[in-house]
Each structure stands twice: as structure tokens, then as C-alpha cells.
Amino acid sequence: MLPVYGKCHSDDFVKGEMCMSQINVTNLTFAYEGSFDDIFENVSFSIDTDWKLGFIGRNGKGKTTFLRLLTEDYAYQGSISASAAFDYFPYAVTETQRKLPASAFLDEIKTDCEEWRVICELAQLGEDAEILYRSFETLSFGEQTKILLAVLFSGENDFLLIDEPTNHLDHDARETVKHYLASKKGFILVSHDRDLLDACIDHVLVLNRQTIEVQSGNFSVWWENKQRKDQFAISENEKHLKEIGKLRQAARRTAAWADKNEATKIGFDPVKEHDRGKGMRPYIGAKTKKMQSRVIQMKQRIEREIEEKEGLLQDLEKTVDLRLTLLSHHKDRLVNVRDYGLQYTDAVHPVFTGLTFSIHQGERVALHGANGCGKSSLIKMILQKAASKTTDAACPASPMPVLEKGVCETVSGLTISYVNQDTSFLTGSLPAFCKKRNLDQSLFCAVLRQLDFERVQFAKNMDDYSEGQKKKVLLAASLLTPAHLYVWDEPLNYIDVFSRMQIEKLLLEYEPTLLFVEHDVRFRETVATKVVEL
Asked: Rounded distance, CA 166 to CA 144, Å?
């Protein structure tokens, strides 16, 4: 929930001037029907239609929802005014359309789409026009994404809403999309890929914990500013707390003096206080009143200090350190792959051949290669060989229909904690999920809270979660599963930037044995101790 509005702080607004075309959001309020909380509450800000705008925020904060509000998919309160038309990526491609070549349904997903314009955009994406005439479902993730992006940018005068275009794309496809978007303008890009954001955007729209803000610059500029702002807020907060503590201590001391002084008004020892007369009572009363007045003034100062302190930490992103319970195996080498090849029984060519590598305890091994090179197939074979104790419902329960060459072996008694790239099987309630996985529900919810899950989400069905929230469910389950080897297949798809950094810190601190596939360049470079190219 974002209960307060944010202002545009961009340097592009020059005094007395304003950019030609703007999108103005005023007092926007929205909540899903039957929801426990508002997604947006009285939100106001302005953006320019000429910007290359990166949209940043925690999972579940409402980034995709806001894009859908712009395209008028949902009813809302407040106003959104814009001179530009909006178009949203990714387009919904039906099952019927997927069996056809893209050229057959271009004008169905984008009105008045001209094929020659799409071909021109595909050329900028490094793709030949022939992919438009092949069955859409036979194309790779990268080819499908490039076609849809080409359709998106084939129009004129649209302000484009691009929602996580690089999920499931390999490194080369990501690089192509990155350079392509860097050459464009007039869009909002939702992405958690720091490398992509740095290359493609010139402004950021940020959903903070309590506010919305707009700033000029790319991700790194915003992140540096945020760290300075957060440090300043922490310092100011500590200063106010110290001042409040001193004032409260002085107020208590002065109040005690006033009470003690007031008690001397009635009754006195004529021997010890021989110089005291009847006129002392008014004097003592006046002195007490003065002290009490000082106490009131101090309390007013305390209230002012507290008021100044309020709001200082409202947008502070303070991540909690995560924990892992590692198992130690009596053998150092856990996985041995030597001159290994895989070929599906119904395929003409092998997925890969001649692969050799090993995984030793403490190593974090990244599998790297193009889409379709066999990374997930290899992971599933290792899981199958290990006959692991994984409880992932998406883990292959029966032998894969493949032919093998060479050696792929795991040590006996190996326990694996697995995160699948697919989240579609997550349905039902969290308690039911915990029961199925034999997880302690209170501990599981505690880990989700550390991953920035709001408590209100615990009462919802997982069907209603965002993709990022679903991925956090799988990650939390993996973190709670003691294991010799952690196997994570694209664990960061849809995961917000703050949680990515949180997981990086965890892996560097605990140094688990990890086999993973991840296309986030910065994450892979930070975490991996060894990269295996397929």
C-alpha cells in the first residue's frame, strides 16, 4: 500500500518550462475486489512521454497493476491524463495463435500492425524476417520475445509499457534486447535486471515503501542517491532519538524538583529553618510554578522532535540477513560429469555432448549457455541420478526419455534442495503448501517476512500471488531445507532488486554448495566460483 503521494524530482523540469507531453496521475486509488488492502492510495506524480523510464519496486507493490491501470484494464478512483496511447508488452498470444506463424496474427495482437514495420524492427534485433513465417510455438523464448518487441515498437506515437521482457532469455538474447531498448525512447520498463536498467533508462519511477518518486538517471544513479538518502535518514533519526532522550531525562528531573519543592510549602522545622516566615509559601509556589512551566516546555519540545522524526525511515529498505542450514557430506566431490551427452529419444540431434565438470563442496557452479542448450535437462538428470529428497512437485517423478553417453554420477546419500524455474504448480494456501513440504509453518512465514512478504499475503491463495511472490515461496522453502547441494534453476526470475542483493549476501556469507542457472549477469559474476559453458 502506498498511502502518500510522491513528487517528480527530475532535473528535466526547468523553471518556467515543461516537456511537451506528459502523463499526469492524480489521487490514484485502487484495490482489487475483495482485497484486504489498497495497492495505491491517493498517489500523484507526473512523467514525460519522451523518457526511457525504469519502474522499480518490491514484488507485490503494484508495478504490473499500474501498467494495467494505464491501459484501462481495471476501474480506479482518481485520474490518469495522457495525450499518448498506451500499448502493453507482453502481448497475450492464444493457444490457437501459437500454432500459427506470427505473420498470420500480427494485426490481431496490435491493431493496424504493418508487417514491413515489424520486419524493420526485427532487423534491429538481429533477426531474419523468416521467423515470422514459422510456427510461433516452435520458436525459442528469445525469438518469440523479439517478435513481440518488434510488434510493440512497430507503431507510432504510442507510449510503451514493457513488463519484464528478459525473463527466461539467455545471455545473448538479453544483450540484443538491451542494446535494442537503449536505442528507443518513450516507454516504461519494468525489470529487476540491474545491468539492463543501467543500459536502457534515463529516469526511474520508484515504488518506495510509503511513497512514489521520480528521478532522473539510471539504476546505479538512483541506487547511489538512495543509499545516501537512507544514511542521512538514519543519522537524523539517531540525532532525534538522542535529543528526545536528553529532553525526557531533563523533564523527569525538573518534574521531580518541582514536586519536592512543592512539598516544602506546608510545615517546617522552626529550629532548622529559623529564618523562614509565613511569606515563604507564595515564594515556594511561584518557584514550583516556574519549574512546572519548564516541564511543559520540554514536553512540547519532545513532541516537536518526535514529529520531525516521523517519516524519516518510512522508505528505508532494511533487509534482514537470511540463514541457511548446510549439511556436510563425507565426500568432497558431490557430482561428477565426464564426457557426458544427452539426446531425447524423439530428437534427431543431441542436446549436448562431451560435457565434463565436477561439483565439490563449497563450490557455486553456474551453468551458462543459450536457451535450449540443455541446462534444465542436465539439472533434472542430476536430480534423477541423486534420487534426492526434494519435495518439489515439479521435479521429474519418472525417468526422462533420453539417451545418455558418458558419465553423470552423484555421491550416495546426497540431499538436494531444488528451486524450479516453473511456478505454475503453486496453488492453494500456504498452510497446505507447508504441510505438503513438511515445513514448519511459523518458520516458513518468518523467512517470507524476511523476504519482504507482508503478513496480509499469508491469508491469500498462492494463485493470487505475483510471479515474484511465487518465486519467493520456492526460495523460502529451499532455504528451510537442510541440504548438501542446492540446485536453483533461474531462481531470480521476477525477484525484486532488493531481494536479489539479499540472496547474494546470503550465498557469499554461508558459501553453500550450489548449482544454478541464472541470466542476471551481476548476480552470476558476484556469486559463481565456477562457470560451466554448455
From this structure: 11
Q: Judging by beta carbons within 10 Å of its beta carbon (0-12, 13-18, 19+), is residue 446 exposed, middle or buried?
A: middle
Question: For residue 532, which amino acid is it?
Answer: V
The answer to whether 533 touches 508, Cβ cutoff 8 Å, is: no
pLDDT of residue 8 exceeding 60? no
Query: What pLDDT score was predicted for residue 16?
Result: 35
Closest C-alpha to 191, from 181, 245, 74: 181
Say which residue, 393 or 355, is predicted with more confidence: 355
Write down how long the chain is.
534
Q: Is the dihedral of CA 383, 387, 391, 396 positive or negative?
A: positive
Identify the bridge partners of residue 357 per DSSP, sorted by sequence position: 337
* pLDDT at 506 exceeding the cut of 70: yes
Three-state secondary structure readout of 178-218: HHHHHCCCCEEEECCCHHHHHHHCCEEEEECCCCEEEEECC
Strand, helix or coil at 516?
strand
Integer angstrom CA distances of residue 465 from 59, 111, 225, 334? 9, 31, 31, 35
| Contact residues for 38 (Cβ-Cβ < 8 A; gap 6+) | 1, 3, 29, 30, 31
Is 50 exceeded by the pLDDT of residue 393? no
End-to-end CA distance of the chain: 44
In this prediction, residue 312 carries a pLDDT of 62
Judge whether 427 and 473 are in contact, CB under 8 Å.
no
Question: pLDDT at position 158, please?
Answer: 86
Helices 467-479 and 497-510, axial angle in degrees (round to 10): 10
Look over the chain and give the mean of its residue pLDDT values, rounded to a whole number: 85
User: What pLDDT score was predicted for residue 364?
Assistant: 97
Ordered alpha helix ranges (H), 263-324: 280-309
CA 414 to the chain's CA centroid:
32
DSSP state string for 388-447 = -----TTS--S--SEEEEEEEEE-TT--EEEE-S--TT--S-HHHHHHHHT--HHHHHHH
Q: Could you tell me the CA-to-CA distances from 5 to 65, 484, 530 in Å, in that order?
A: 17, 47, 46
pTM of the full structure: 0.73
Given a contact cutoff of 8 angstroms between Cβ atoms, the answer to whether 381 and 374 are in contact is no
**Residue 57, amino acid:** G
